């Protein structure tokens, strides 16, 4: 990358798609998961705070910041379920990765695609520790924008080959089947959620409605399954019946955030949960017996975006898939910012001074 202090690498949507395709989706997921795993193992080094959210009737806009003391990262992200009716994305995002030592940004990146990738990679990372051994079939309830990413991540990390698909919108299921055709899956389109979970060792829920919902009822969840609950990610938005939570061993990213936004907002504030970082670091036990029901209550946390930005920055150094933005002021003398205006070609200030119009 260029050494000019004013230039910052920017990864556009176009470049992100090129990067993912050049690396390969499954390899991208696998490598990204390694970065996530590495950062979860050093969890205690990170600043941690629940995301800063601005809620409205239409949706939410959030900032997700964190730092490991050397680098700082944040993501701007929204969630507006009504957007699909207007031909817009439900979720859009961008992120910044910066040097703590001088405050200069090292990377600006689109994160709409990258968030989809890191969400799926985090799900697969949790399932690596929690899913039944030898699992090869996953129910995927909610076949919107996140569904294919979940499928590819679980294929890359756990070898999932069988998918049982269900969405209240049959068009979404057909979209998902069409997109995943020829990528190594045996897919079944199901007529109901009850049908979808039949024979599945892993159940992923990834729905978008911003409301208390019951996508999974208690009778749908048998012994020994792993539940990957992705859709519940803000106050008032859930997918699982409370009784399922009471039967499950629950794993979360950051309890102060998940108790506000996740499935466990339905439970008492002192209901026991385990943190994912402790599982990854070998400080907690995951699946320990065959009939155990495990639940990853996924809401997304800033360290995961940090890991994703860190991964992308490392990869673009090798590929050159970025644009340089003239983003930072770089005066000849650091304290002479106004002088930059005077010396700018065609500066009206300089012309006025030369004509004696400025006293």
Gist of the model:
This protein has 359 residues and is an alpha/beta fold.
Structural description of this entry:
- With 359 residues, this protein is of the alpha/beta class.
- The protein has 2 domains: 7-113 and 304-326, ornithine cyclodeaminase, domain 1, CATH 3.30.1780.10; 132-300, NAD(P)-binding Rossmann-like Domain (Rossmann fold, 3-Layer(aba) Sandwich), CATH 3.40.50.720.
- It contains 12 helices and 17 strands.
- The chain has helices at 13-23, 25-41, 112-130, 147-158, 170-180, 193-197, 242-247, 255-261, 276-280, 302-319, 337-343, 348-354, and strands at residues 7-11, 52-55, 60-67, 71-79, 93-99, 105-110, 137-141, 162-166, 186-189, 202-205, 212-216, 226-229, 238-240, 249-252, 274-275, 294-297, 323-326.
- Strands 9-8-7-10-12-16-14-15 form an 8-stranded parallel β-sheet.
- Strand 14 (249-252), helix 8 and strand 15 (274-275) form a beta-alpha-beta unit.
- The radius of gyration is 23 Å and the shape is elongated.
- It starts with 6 loop residues before the first strand and ends in a 5-residue tail after the last helix.
- The relative contact order is 0.17.
- It comes from Chelativorans salis.
- Belongs to the ornithine cyclodeaminase/mu-crystallin family.
- InterPro entries: NAD(P)-bd_dom_sf, ODC_Mu_crystall, ODC_N.
- This is Ornithine cyclodeaminase.
Counted up, domains total 2
pLDDT < 50 stretches? none
Q: What is the architecture of the largest domain at the second tier of CATH?
A: 3-Layer(aba) Sandwich
Distance between the termini: 44 Å
What Rg, in angstroms, do the CA atoms define? 23 Å
| Helix content class | 25-40%
Strand content: 15-25%
Helical segment tally?
Answer: 12
CATH superfamily of the largest domain: NAD(P)-binding Rossmann-like Domain
Q: What would you call the shape?
A: elongated
> What's the β-strand tally?
17
Spatial sequence of strands, sheet with the most strands: 9-8-7-10-12-16-14-15
Average pLDDT, rounded to a whole number, is 93
Largest sheet data: 8 strands, parallel
CATH class term of the largest domain: Alpha Beta
Oligomer: single chain
SSE order, as H and E? EHHEEEEEHEHEHEHEEEEHEHEHEHEHH
- Helix and strand composition category: alpha/beta
Q: Briefly note the CATH topology name of the largest domain.
A: Rossmann fold
């Amino acid at each position: 990358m260029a050494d000019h202090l004013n230039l910052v690498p920017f990864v556009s949507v176009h470049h992100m798609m090129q990067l993912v395709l050049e690396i390969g989706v499954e390899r991208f997921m696998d490598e990204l998961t390694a970065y996530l795993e590495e950062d979860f193992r050093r969890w205690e080094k990170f600043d941690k705070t629940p995301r800063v959210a601005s809620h409205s009737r239409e949706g939410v806009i959030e900032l997700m910041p964190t730092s490991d003391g050397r680098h700082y990262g944040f993501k701007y992200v929204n969630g507006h379920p009504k957007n699909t009716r207007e031909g817009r994305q439900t979720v859009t995002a961008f992120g910044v990765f910066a040097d703590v030592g001088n405050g200069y940004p090292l990377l600006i990146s689109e994160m709409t695609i990258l968030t989809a990738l890191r969400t799926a990679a985090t799900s697969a990372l949790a399932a690596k520790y929690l899913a039944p051994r030898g699992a090869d079939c996953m129910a995927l309830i909610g076949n919107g924008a996140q569904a294919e990413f979940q499928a590819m991540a679980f294929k890359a990390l756990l070898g999932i080959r069988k998918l049982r698909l269900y969405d209240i919108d049959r068009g979404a299921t057909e979209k998902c089947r069409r997109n995943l055709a020829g990528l190594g899956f045996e897919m079944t389109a199901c007529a109901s959620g009850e049908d979808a979970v039949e024979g599945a060792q892993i159940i992923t829920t990834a729905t978008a409605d911003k409301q208390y919902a019951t996508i999974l009822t208690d009778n749908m969840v048998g012994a020994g399954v792993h539940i990957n609950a992705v859709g519940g990610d803000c106050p008032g938005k859930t997918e699982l019946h409370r009784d399922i939570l009471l039967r499950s061993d629950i794993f979360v990213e950051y309890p102060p955030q998940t108790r506000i936004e996740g499935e466990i907002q339905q439970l008492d504030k002192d209901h026991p949960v385990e943190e994912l970082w402790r599982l990854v670091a070998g400080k907690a036990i995951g699946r320990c017996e065959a009939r155990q029901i495990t639940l990853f209550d996924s809401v997304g946390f800033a360290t995961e975006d940090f890991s994703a930005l860190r991964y992308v920055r490392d990869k673009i150094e090798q590929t050159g898939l970025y644009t340089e933005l003239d983003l930072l002021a770089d005066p000849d003398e650091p304290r002479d910012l106004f002088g930059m205006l005077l010396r700018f070609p065609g500066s009206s200030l300089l012309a006025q001074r030369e004509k004696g119009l400025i006293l």
